[in-house]
């Protein structure tokens, strides 16, 4: 007969090993998700590079790289502390401890890595909206400011157990409970508001104060299209972003075992359906509008790409608390929000946004926050957020379309408006200071020639000149010998003529 003490000890050891395995698997899942989110940096880089003119591609690539670098340093120094995501006794507005990770347990370091990837994504959203005319110094200063202070404040509101809008508000050490906003707290599972709205609103503030690119509007204020130079690159970026979203949304469960796997699987499904429906509806709606206005039909891949991204942004807040059917509806409405927002920005407000970041992330992000208050089901809200602490029934508020009343929707509205006010105010003041100091925008001469030539070491495409992608002839190719020969002047004249021709070709295609 086995010794009872020995048997008990074996049971304890087995339980400990099982518990440790759970921690290890969840940690591995979150770290893997963070790597997928970092892949989104490559997606943003390709999307923005392809959406600008060739003479500005090298500079925008550098800015995207610097986002990842600056975000790492600033989120270590101040961002994590301001966010206060693991601290339950901080104030409701801003985190007050764990700056430079001081006091953060080693077993929780994976949380910093995951949240750093989110911070870098929020920062990068702005790069495309400011493309082709913002100075590098201004962009670096912006990156430091938004990562070090503006962005983490919003994440504290919504994801910290102390945040005033958070659905995670928890029991205090003295046994009292923090009241939830409208008895509910706001739902922003993966960041339609905390990430995408922050980036979109900041992009709006920056682009508005920068002003439009040279030649973007005619004398009557009518927009003149300035197409990007590489559609393939931009669509590659879209696919990379979509793939990265499978770390962004499912990873926000912060675990995959002990009950998390069902949530993670559902989030993968809702994310996929919203992105797909957004891309389809945007493409067909754009074709219908185009046919009604001009009688022509053009299947525009860039419109479809941005529509898919808008669908993904829209579902990011409610992805864990909605049904697959609701995800399709949210993606469809997100497509219309994107198209309407894009038109409003370019034609009414005359805000020049080369990549439509404001419409994709700002406007669609707002819709995503509101959608959580309408489509979240009672069962899924309870599964993800648990019961309400300190109440008799513990029942969570849920979506208005499912009979949950208006409390959750009211919380979503207050949270959404607060993000707009905070980010718009702080970033508007910041960009206004840079503009007043004369360091926000490059000179007209630099902008007209392209920033790459004078600021970033030349073209991203060596041996290729102009905007139409015309290969410049070399002396050897023309049988003229060395370029320093007596025929050098003739060769340089020919080069100038080819460059002038390429600019004219671009000008002609830009008006089509």
UniProtKB/TrEMBL annotation:
Spans through the membrane: 27-47, 68-88, 108-130, 137-159, 179-210, 231-248, 263-285, 297-316, 322-345, 357-375, 413-434
GO MF term (any one): ammonium channel activity
Highest taxon of the lineage: Eukaryota
Listed GO biological process terms: ammonium homeostasis
Domain Ammonium transporter AmtB-like, chain residue ranges per copy: 29-461
Any single Pfam family the record assigns to this protein: Ammonium_transp
Entry keywords, A to Z: Ammonia transport, Membrane, Transmembrane, Transmembrane helix, Transport
Keyword Transcription among UniProt keywords: no
GO CC terms, sorted: plasma membrane
Recorded topology in the membrane: Multi-pass membrane protein
Membership in a protein family: Belongs to the ammonia transporter channel (TC 1.A.11.2) family.
NCBIfam families xrefs: amt
Protein name, UniProt field: Ammonium transporter
């Amino acid at each position: 007969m086995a010794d009872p003490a020995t048997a008990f000890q074996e049971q304890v050891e087995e339980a400990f090993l099982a518990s440790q395995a759970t921690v290890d698997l969840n940690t591995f899942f979150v770290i893997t998700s963070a790597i997928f989110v970092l892949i989104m940096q490559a997606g943003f880089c390709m999307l923005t590079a392809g959406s600008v003119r060739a003479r500005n591609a090298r500079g925008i690539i550098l800015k995207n790289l610097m986002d990842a670098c600056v975000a790492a340093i600033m989120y270590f120094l101040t961002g994590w502390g301001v966010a206060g995501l693991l601290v339950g006794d901080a104030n409701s507005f801003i985190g007050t401890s764990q700056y430079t990770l001081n006091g953060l347990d080693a077993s929780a370091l994976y949380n910093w890595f995951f949240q750093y990837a989110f911070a870098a994504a929020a920062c990068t959203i702005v790069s495309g909206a400011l493309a082709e005319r913002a100075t590098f110094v201004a962009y670096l200063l912006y990156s430091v400011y938004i990562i070090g202070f503006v962005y983490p404040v919003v994440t504290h509101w919504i994801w910290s157990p102390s945040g005033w809008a958070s659905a995670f508000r928890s029991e205090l050490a003295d046994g009292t409970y923090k009241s939830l906003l409208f008895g509910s707290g706001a739902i922003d599972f993966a960041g339609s508001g905390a990430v995408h709205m922050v980036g979109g609103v900041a992009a709006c503030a920056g682009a508005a104060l920068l002003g439009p690119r040279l030649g973007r509007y005619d004398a009557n204020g009518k927009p003149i299209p300035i197409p990007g130079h590489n559609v393939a690159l931009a669509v590659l970026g879209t696919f990379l972003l979509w793939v990265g979203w499978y770390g962004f949304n499912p990873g926000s469960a912060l675990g995959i075992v002990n009950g998390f796997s069902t949530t993670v699987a559902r989030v993968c499904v809702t994310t996929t359906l919203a992105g797909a429906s957004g891309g389809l509806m945007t493409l067909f709606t754009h074709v219908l509008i185009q046919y009604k206005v001009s009688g022509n039909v053009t299947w525009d891949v860039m419109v479809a790409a941005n529509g898919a991204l808008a669908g993904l942004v829209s579902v990011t807040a409610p992805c864990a608390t909605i049904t697959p059917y609701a995800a399709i509806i949210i993606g469809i409405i997100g497509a219309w929000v994107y198209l309407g927002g894009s038109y409003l920005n370019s034609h009414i407000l005359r805000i020049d946004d080369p990549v439509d970041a404001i419409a994709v992330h700002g406007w669609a992000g707002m819709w995503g926050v509101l959608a959580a208050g309408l489509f979240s089901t009672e069962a899924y809200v309870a599964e993800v957020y648990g019961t309400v602490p300190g109440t008799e029934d513990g029942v969570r508020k849920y979506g208005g379309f499912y009979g949950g009343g208006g409390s959750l929707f009211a919380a979503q509205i207050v949270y959404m408006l607060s993000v707009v006010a905070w980010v718009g105010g702080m970033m508007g003041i910041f960009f206004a200071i840079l503009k007043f100091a004369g360091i926000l925008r490059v000179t007209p001469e630099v902008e007209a020639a392209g920033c790459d030539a004078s600021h970033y070491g030349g073209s991203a495409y060596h041996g290729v000149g102009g905007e139409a992608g015309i290969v410049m002839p070399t002396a050897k190719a023309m049988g003229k010998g060395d370029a320093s020969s007596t025929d050098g002047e003739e060769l340089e004249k020919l080069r100038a003529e080819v460059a002038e021709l390429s600019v004219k070709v671009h000008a002609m295609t830009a008006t089509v």
